[in-house]
Amino acid sequence: MQNTLKKLVSSFVTFTTIVSSVGVGALALPSVASAATLASGDLVKASGPAVYLYVGDGKRYTFPNETTFKSWYKDFSGVKTISDADLATLQLAGNVTMRAGTYLAKITTDPKVYALSPGGQLHWVQSEAVASALYGANWAKKVVDVPDAFFTNYSVGASLATATYPDGTLLSKDGNLYVVSGGNARKLASSAAVAANGLNAAFAVATTMSLTAGSDVTDRESGVADPAAMSTATVTSGGSLTASLASDTPAGMTVTKNASSVPLVKVNLTAGAADALVTGLRFHRVGIGAVGDFSNVYLYDGSGKRLSTGRSINSTTNLVEFNSVNATVKAGTTWSALVYGDFSTPASTGGQHSMRLEDAAAVMTSGGAVSGSFPIAGQTFTVGTASSGRLDVLKGSTPTNPTVGSKQAEVSNFKLVANTNDLLVKQISLYQNGTVSNSDVSNFNLYQGSTMVATTPSVDSTGHIVLNLNPAYLIGNGQTKVFSLKADVGGRADRTIRTYVEYTTDVTGTDTVYGSGAAVDIAVNGNMDGSAFVSCVAPGNSMCVTTQGGQLTNSFNGPSTANVAKGKLAAQLYSFSLTSAANNLEVRNTRFTLQVANGSPAACLLTGSASTAYFRSLKLKNLDTGATVASKDLGSAASQVTSTVTFTDTYNLSVGKTLNLAFVADLSNSEDVAGQFFTNGTCMYQVVFNPFQLGDVKDVNTGEQLALAKIVPNTALTGNAQTVKSSGLSVALASNPVSGTIVKNQANVAIAGLSLTAAAQSDITITSLTLTGSATLNGGVTYTVAQLSTLVSSL
């Protein structure tokens, strides 16, 4: 049942989505049609999950994601099903952009929020005040991400510096609906006019603003209703492609009958003098074997990113089509595609399988020619009688909800359990399906215990966190290993970070006994498949945390407990992040306490008995730019063990931005009385971030003092203890060379090895090295230091 359900699931169109959109009672399956009977404006699909807009003249437009589709249509009840062959005859003409006036858009690598107008134009909403005036206090709930890959479908128009509705906006006022066109509000004359133009009243913005009336909309108008007419970024036919079998295509082998994520073939597509767009690939399974030997097959690119959901091989044609690939191959470059398969534990073994591109038509493009020596066939894989060890993926302990602005906060936790044999884990791909913007979670590091085993900078365009373990991580038979995923967290409070394994193929493991793919289990013996999710409170088989923060969020980021060298300049004693979620803010006072930490000897001081400041040039540093934000002196009171430090320099926080700061100080290189500052490495010091007081932070737009309740957290945050030590260097004999006999007249003979080790708190620069030596010849003649040069000509 699980595998059957997985075949239906897609990141775009799923039966689950349909049910949730229109309700079980209203569920209507797509009607059956053919390319010959299609009319312009029809929605079509083939055996795959992707839905297209047919625009006539044998052309179709792609909906890049479900959000785009839902901006135009309430549900999928009007979708017609055609054959794969008919779909292949329809040329890809472009991508549909989000309907103007439905959502606010945010590009994943750009913090700006945009309103949309027809033609895929983006208009930067310059301030929260403008957003609130146009779309209400809950305007942020209208914001959705546009993946970077589809940014080129849009163009940037004039910014919205004042509260002016862009064209295409659907408005609600005094019981009527209006659509903005040419700057005027055109009333929808009747419910029939609303329906004819496919408008959804759920997107209407309630407004009390004065509107300049335009002519009524009485019937369907292409400029209001037609997705193709209101979208841009028509795809050019593109350049030519040459297809070939990759030199590192997987070698044929006998695989275990339950193996997951088995690489079956790798093909290269090389563009000619112009860019080329690959829209789809069609592979043919050949060999003496049943298609039922596979539970799913998948398409990946050369970087390890999965491009498709699990697909079935057609039992009649032995074909599997991966459509909606939409990969651009730059001129003169090569793009790789790999097919992976999950085997289904068939009762009858010995089946043989090879995947191949049968002809040029198997490489679908936006119009460019395809050449190559066809068929392009991978190696043969035979289903063996043995079974691989099972790799179970289980939820771990739920992390503490991360604070916005946190660096390396734990966002997910899971366990891997090896059953039957030792297993090597090579890749783990977690799907991020929470409400947080993917661009607000970055710098992912995967840890097993204290060892970092994988890293990736960001969530990819398909919503996956792809973690490649290099070297592969070995889990012994019967062992359970706990993994922790940490990341930098930005954005807004009350956003969920939900992670799970979408498909078994998203975890790549190898059984070390058979050298074949491990049988990955995410649902039956595991519990990390994303099912049964209700909310972060009832996450089902997902790991889920919720970002915490207020209008101003304060996050402690380190450093960890460590040693710091006496005399060090700009020593980092406390680092933190300040994030403004909704307004431009001005910070007027930043309050700290510098103190001797508990556990230090009684003699330890901040300032000496003769008033020497052991901490000097106190500063707040911007860690991203290196600039000094604020500075302060410690003061001259003698024998201090604690001191309040208030930085009164003013600095600003831009809305939606995180400011990474550090409290730094120059440490003294001398002390008034021995033991007051470093006491042979036992004096420890720490910084406490004190709560903001009323008036410390102001809203730049309104000039009002920020309420303390809007600062999260606004309690004392104590940093880790730093132990001041003198710099140190230890010298020892190295293990090589060992004692032995030297033959006379040799050159470059290794006669001594030294190991020089710097103490943890400081780097050491060595400026000179003096060696003393002596020698004894066979026969007992001893040479003194002064006589050594008669034996050694040079060192």
In short:
This protein is mainly beta and 795 residues long.
Fold and architecture overview:
With about 800 residues, the protein is mainly β. It is built from seven helices and 59 strands. Strands 17, 19, 21, 22, 24, 25, 27 and 28 form an eight-stranded mixed beta sheet that branches. A six-stranded mixed beta sheet has the order 1-5-2-3-4-6, with no helix packed on it. Strands 33-32-35-30-29-39 form a six-stranded mixed beta sheet, with no helix packed on it. Strand 12 (about 170-175) and strand 13 (about 175-180) form a beta hairpin. The longest helix has 8 residues, at about 15-20. The radius of gyration is 33 Å and the shape is flat. The model is unreliable at about 1-30 and about 235 (pLDDT under 50).
Instruction: List how many beta strands DSSP finds.
Output: 59
Structural class: mainly beta
Round the Cα radius of gyration to an integer and report it: 33 Å
What's the end-to-end separation, in Å? 76 Å
**Global shape:** flat
Unreliable segments of 5+ consecutive residues:
1-30, 233-237
From the structure above, extract its key features.
795 residues, six-stranded mixed β-sheet, eight-stranded mixed β-sheet, mainly beta
Protein topology:
Elements: H1 2-8, H2 15-22, E1 31-32, E2 43-45, E3 52-56, E4 59-62, H3 66-72, E5 79-81, H4 84-88, E6 91-95, E7 104-107, E8 113-117, E9 121-124, H5 128-135, E10 143-146, E11 155-156, E12 170-173, E13 176-181, E14 184-187, H6 191-196, E15 205-206, H7 222-225, E16 241-245, E17 253-255, E18 262-271, E19 276-286, E20 294-301, E21 319-322, E22 327-329, E23 334-343, E24 352-357, E25 363-365, E26 370-372, E27 376-377, E28 381-383, E29 390-395, E30 409-419, E31 423-432, E32 441-448, E33 451-458, E34 464-475, E35 480-489, E36 496-500, E37 507-511, E38 516-517, E39 519-521, E40 543-546, E41 552-558, E42 562-565, E43 571-580, E44 585-587, E45 590-596, E46 615-622, E47 628-632, E48 642-647, E49 651-653, E50 658-667, E51 684-689, E52 697-699, E53 711-712, E54 717-718, E55 722-725, E56 729-733, E57 754-758, E58 775-776, E59 782-783
